[in-house]
Amino acid sequence: MANNITKKWWHDKVAYQIYPKSFYDSNGDGIGDLPGIIDKLDYLKDLGIDIIWLSPCYCSPLADEGYDISDYYNIDPRFGTMADMDQLIDEAKKRDMYILMDLVVNHCSDEHEWFKKACEDPEGKYGSFFYLRNKTDGELPTNWRSYFGGPVWDDLPGTDKQYLHVFHKKQPDLNWENPELREEVYKNINWWLDKGLAGFRIDAIINIKKALPLRSYEPDRDDGLCNIHKMLKDAKGIGEFLGEMRDHTFKKYDAFSVGEVFNEKPEEIPDFIGENGYFSSMFDFNETVFGSSEKGWYDAKPITPDDYKRCCFESQAKIGDIGFLSNIIENHDEPRGVSRYIPEGECSPQSKKLLAALNFMLRGLPFIYQGQELGMENVPFSSIDEIDDISTLDEYQVALKAGLSPDDALNAVAKYSRDNARTPMQWSDGANAGFTTGTPWLKVNPNFVSINAAAQKDDPNSVKNFYKKLIALRKNPEYKETVVYGSLEPIWEDVHNLMAYYRKGAKTLLVIGNYQMDIQTVTLPSSYKRVLVNNYADIAENGQTISLNAYQVLILEM
Fold first, then answer.
1. What is the mean pLDDT of residues 84-111?
2. What's the mean pLDDT when you consider all of the chain?
3. 351 by DSSP, 3-state: which?
């Protein structure tokens, strides 16, 4: 039992991620907006949500769906106004809810005034806000491959220089080595926290530290480029930046911060999320990165129930009681979790509930992504022309180059496409799933007629009401201490397609999931006091031996 952790206001909370463009459209232009979110606050309150994280809604040309920010102090007119943002923060407060925004400070947009000024005067103050290098004929400063394919270097317009962008070419990297730039970043963070924001989800933050001096690495594909992770492995000293950011911003406000952290080294975990960590929490991506391949999405290996279990338990063991992970099944950058973690053809309300309970009861903060609580699924794409996401389009080309037929390439990348999570939220079985009265910016998943919030609202057996039960259990004064702070101990780890673990604190809870269609029998180590959660009406038991139905999940008080 981790008693040594200083209790914080956010430890017992449940978070929900909104992708504003696809959540709810209040004005019929086909794009979700802030007034639409305000409209749906009571829906989220009823579900039991405390913290809402908004994906970017700052001014942006949307080259990467808002992760290319052209003005950090303004709301993009597509999403509403600053008055709407103030109202959202205000209305959330009235409901004891907290708003987080996305903090995107590894890069800005090439339409940001800093970058425009750097183009006008590369030798001046703003030139040093970016990574600029002199242009050499036929040779790039380094051979790193950007996350979206192609080299990380592009010509700085109107100059004889090139600039670095580890993401899209419209996302020039900010030079964190420059203290003047860092001051600007902190000033902006504090401006938002002064407004009443509760904190931030921090995007792509591991990329702010480059391995200096910049150099090339061994190429790993025939494009002569290398994976950017080779450079990141060599980068030392990110902690100085992150510690400084914490002390200048979050710490002063007792703000909540959750990092999108990949590639952290095990010995750095206390620095990231320990007692005085850079962040309050960080996401667990162990499951999402499983099976990925250097070659591309087409070569990725599907994840099995046993892999999923191992990934979760590995992360839990690695963190122990150092701090709090933020646990996810999906987000705006991933396909739908039920389509990924439940074997093909086995998606059903029961299997979706099993996945929900197994993930939700892990130690850490549960993050639900919009529509996850309804069991929204991947989209059947019939043509590459239906896809909007830049990384999917790039991976489709990678698959074609590898020799896949257009059909096979589409099938391979559709499974992982970020568009799966970005289709409009399914509110009802009405036109456009009740998302908009206009034409939605991305097509609605055709299964909205059967999977939608209205249909699930009053159905006691719906996926949504199952999530409500899990959230209520986390908040129940009798069990809260155990669910939030209790230790996690796996049991029956070697049993195929069974995922089970204890949560031990003031109480002892046993979570057991039969992660398959076939019935599976387990013998409990002792008798149980009561059934707290069950996705079936009853339990088939004989003494301490239980027969678990297809995808049956139980939470028992022992």
1. 98
2. 96
3. helix
CA atoms of 113 and 59, how far apart (whole Å): 12
Residue type, 81: T
Residue 482 DSSP SS3: helix
Tell me if 282 sits within 8 A of 259, measured CB to CB. yes
The Cα–Cα gap between 533 and 512 comes to 10
In the sheet that 545-548 helps form, which strands lie side by side, from edge to edge? 520-523, 545-548, 540-542
Least confident of 22-36, 74-88, 263-277: 263-277
Strand 324-327 and strand 365-369: pairing?
A: parallel
User: How far is C-alpha 152 from the chain's CA centre?
Assistant: 24
How does DSSP classify residue 402?
T
**397-403: average pLDDT:** 96
- Catalytic-labelled residue, pool 65, 84, 154, 203: 203
- Considering the candidates 76, 154, 260, 419, report the single residue annotated as catalytic: 260
260 catalytically annotated? yes
Cross-strand bridge partners of residue 534:
554
**Alpha helices (runs of H) in 320-429, residue ranges in sequence order:** 337-341, 349-360, 390-401, 406-414, 419-422
Place 264 in a pLDDT band, splitting at 50, 70 and 90: confident
Q: Which tokens hold the place of 4?
A: 């040594």
Q: Cα–Cα distances in Å, from 300 out to 204, 205, 356?
A: 22, 25, 24
CA distance 368 to 152: 33
